[in-house]
Structure formats: C-alpha cells, structure tokens
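Target chain:
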Amino acid sequence: MREIIKKVHNKFREDVINILIRTKKKSSLALANEL
C-alpha cells in the first residue's frame, strides 16, 4: 500500500516540476518578447 502511495506521489511531483519548468520557459519567452 505504501509503495503505491509513494509511486503516485513521485509521479505527481514530476508532473508539478514539469509544469513549473514549462511555465517558466513560457514566462521567459514572454519576457524576451516584452524586451
């Protein structure tokens, strides 16, 4: 049971990190366009 929770948690964390990276890239591009 605990292993499943750990797997789901790790997957969730990866997704969150990917989303953050993606939004960071987008905001970097947006900032570059502003300049």
Summary: Residues 1-34 form one domain. Residues 19 and 25 are 10 Å apart (CA to CA). The helical segments are 2-34. The chain has a mean pLDDT of 89.
